[in-house]
């Protein structure tokens, strides 16, 4: 199926077009996503793969949740926050990422799939939530799995969304070194 990449703004659009001129891109025009846009995405999702590629900030995560709720089959591409910072490090956005980072993110896109056996108890047991070092550990895990950083509640939802298993999480965390 052909793909359509969904981004937040025109600068994201321009950056991706510079990297991949042949791709189809739709722009949400910010985090105030309109119902008509969501309806358009729903129609397009019957003939296209929808790839959600939004900024690694609260507004981007809000858009990701809204689109995923309406289009569960959407694929997701992520760029680590530190790889999408402006030169003055005050802004986060796809438009600040370099070409290779964008290409890698799109190559590593993830699809929703069933099969996760993750539980909140498991996350507590592995100290991914509820501990002083949980944030660092989550960051390590999210980067290794290429699922975008999220808080504890979001981690549970994201691991379930992508069908990531307890075994996969344990294997990744075997490489974690606390500081």
UniProtKB/TrEMBL annotation:
It is found in: Cytoplasm. Keywords: Cytoplasm, Endonuclease, Hydrolase, Magnesium, Metal-binding, Nuclease, Ribosome biogenesis, RNA-binding, rRNA processing, rRNA-binding. Pfam families: DUF4093 (PF13331), Toprim (PF01751). It is an enzyme of class 3 (hydrolase). The keyword Cytoplasm applies. InterPro entries: RNase_M5, RNase_M5_C, TOPRIM_dom, TOPRIM_RNase_M5-like. It catalyses: Endonucleolytic cleavage of RNA, removing 21 and 42 nucleotides, respectively, from the 5'- and 3'-termini of a 5S-rRNA precursor. PANTHER family: DNA PRIMASE (BACTERIAL TYPE) AND SMALL PRIMASE-LIKE PROTEINS, RIBONUCLEASE M5. Belongs to the ribonuclease M5 family. This is Ribonuclease M5. It comes from Paracholeplasma manati.
């Amino acid at each position: 199926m052909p793909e359509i990449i969904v981004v937040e703004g025109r600068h994201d659009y321009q950056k991706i077009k510079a990297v991949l001129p042949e791709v189809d891109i739709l722009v949400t025009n910010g985090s105030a996503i309109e119902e008509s846009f969501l309806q358009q995405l729903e129609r397009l999702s019957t003939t296209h793969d929808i790839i959600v590629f939004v900024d690694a900030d609260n507004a981007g995560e809000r858009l990701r949740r809204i689109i995923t709720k309406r289009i569960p089959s959407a694929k997701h591409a992520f760029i680590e926050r530190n790889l999408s910072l402006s030169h003055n490090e005050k802004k986060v956005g796809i438009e600040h990422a370099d070409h290779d980072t964008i290409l890698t993110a799109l190559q590593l896109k993830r699809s929703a799939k069933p099969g996760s056996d993750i539980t909140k108890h498991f996350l507590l047991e592995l100290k991914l939530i509820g501990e002083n070092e949980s944030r660092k550990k989550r960051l390590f895990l999210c980067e290794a799995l290429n699922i975008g950083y999220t808080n504890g509640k979001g981690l549970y939802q994201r691991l379930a969304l992508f069908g990531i298993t307890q075994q996969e999480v344990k294997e990744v965390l075997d490489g974690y070194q606390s500081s």
